[in-house]
Amino acid sequence: MDKLLITGGHPLRGTVRASGAKNAALPILAATLLADAPVQLTNVPRLRDIRTTLELLGRMGACLTQDAADGITVAPAALTSFVAPYELVKTMRASILVLGPLLARYGQADVSLPGGCAIGARPVNVHIDGLRAMGAEITVEGGYIRARAQRLRGARIVMELVSVTGTENLMMAAALAEGETLIENAAREPEVVDLAEFLNTLGAQIEGAGTDRIRIQGVARLGGGAYRIMPDRIETGTFLVAAAMTGGRVRVTDTRPDCLDAVLKKLHATGADITTGADWIELEMGGRRPRAVDIHTAPHPAFPTDMQAQFCALNAMAEGVGTVAETIFENRFMHVPELQRMGADIRIDGHVAVCHGVAQLTAAPVMATDLRASAGLVLAGLVAAGQTLVDRIYHLDRGYETMETKLATLGAQIERRTGTGQV
Ligand SMILES: CC(=O)N[C@H]1[C@@H](OP(=O)(O)OP(=O)(O)OC[C@H]2O[C@@H](n3ccc(=O)[nH]c3=O)[C@H](O)[C@@H]2O)O[C@H](CO)[C@@H](O)[C@@H]1O
Ligand SMILES: C=C(OP(=O)(O)O)C(=O)O
Question: Residues 74, 75, 76, 81: what is their CA dihedral angle, to the nearest 10 degrees?
């Protein structure tokens, strides 16, 4: 099992490029199941979750080829299976995203229930309710969602709660349904917009993505096209937090400042100077220690839960006291006990973590428990005194492309230790 060994105390300086967004690439890859002509995707990040998706789609009979750079070509192919098996779904919850496309195009899907994970229970009831409203017959048995439909019918769906992949699944299903679908209380995340733009490139008729009301006029078929995946706003934010914590100066290029308003506002409140261009963001900390900030996670455009662990790490070494309220996932503070092992003074009270910044974190062996928790621990390692060993970084590899290489380019002392299998 791979680990990261980090020697803290080196300010990050320089320029780093943001990769394509994991959370846009995953639904877009699933959406290629809807196309009946070739699709060329670029800016696809090289991540464990992407490899899992390629394996999942490949097992169904889809024909996807990865090119040497950041491209994936999807050739039309007749599927031979409509099953997302447990052994793949358990490693990547986003596998649920094949449910809508399979049902809409092929009228059948058997998708393993994702089950709970480190950050919470994460049920998929709103995906199922929405598809039922469109005429699908769905049973849940033996741990599988078994869905069948002739042709889905457009419907007005008021989502019980704001779900990102729920909105995406329903949008993909509605793209090929008969008639109009209206999704109310839809997620407004930029990745939902990216998926809608991709589907429209293939000939879908989707309006309103990015608002809480998405209108989809179903079409008989979707063709092919070329599409560039949007940049990863969470990876971008993670590098900016790293710059703020280490007192450095980092420019992230090939990114989208307009998707990061809430995060940039909080970084500004830490005392950082931030400048932006059309596709870059630069953070200058000038050797200062950041000030602790209060965070309250909520659906976009509010502060993203996927940046919460990184800001806990920042608050842990910042000046003052910062409270972090997690309102999306019920168990997303798994990084806190590990940060405490590095000397952090954080108390959890229900869904709020109260962080009293300490002047110096100290290195310790720590264990990553989920993707963003891993990122938080890496950031803490960058400023801790001594050598931090972050174990179980397969979580990190789900969502960050060569993170250690990018950080090393910026001056971090970080290296991957390829493991022998023991934990
Ligand atoms: C692949 C992807 O894009 N993942 C992102 C997506 O996850 P994902 O789409 O799984 O997260 P959701 O937006 O669905 O979850 C939001 C909340 O709703 C609950 N819920 C969701 C669906 C449902 O049917 N029933 C239900 O109760 C969840 O347990 C959670 O408490 O959005 C999350 C919230 O921004 C991010 O942290 C993830 O990085
Ligand atoms: C929670 C995340 O991803 P996923 O929904 O794929 O588990 C994340 O990207 O932080």
Answer: -60
Q: Kindly report, residue by residue over 182-232, the tens digit of the pLDDT.
A: 999 999 999 999 999 999 999 999 999 999 999 999 999 999 999 999 999
CA distance 41 to 201: 12
Q: Is-catalytic flag, 117? A: yes
Residue 421 confidence (pLDDT): 47
pLDDT reading at 303 higher than 80: yes
On whether ipTM exceeds 0.90, the answer is yes
| Residue ranges matching CATH 3.65.10.10 in the chain | 3-19+231-417, 22-228
Which ligand does the CA of 121 lie closest to? 1
Atom of ligand 1 at shortest range from CA of 328: 31
Ligand that lies nearest to the alpha carbon of residue 165, given by its number in the listed order:
1
User: Superfamily for 22-228?
Assistant: Enolpyruvate transferase domain (3.65.10.10)
| The length of the chain, given as a count of residues | 423
420 pLDDT tier (thresholds 50, 70, 90)? low
Ligand 1 mutation target, pool 119, 164, 169, 194, most atoms within 8 A of CB? 164
When the candidates are 3.65.10.10, 3.40.50.1100, 2.10.109.10, 3.30.1360.120, the CATH number that belongs to 3-19+231-417 is: 3.65.10.10
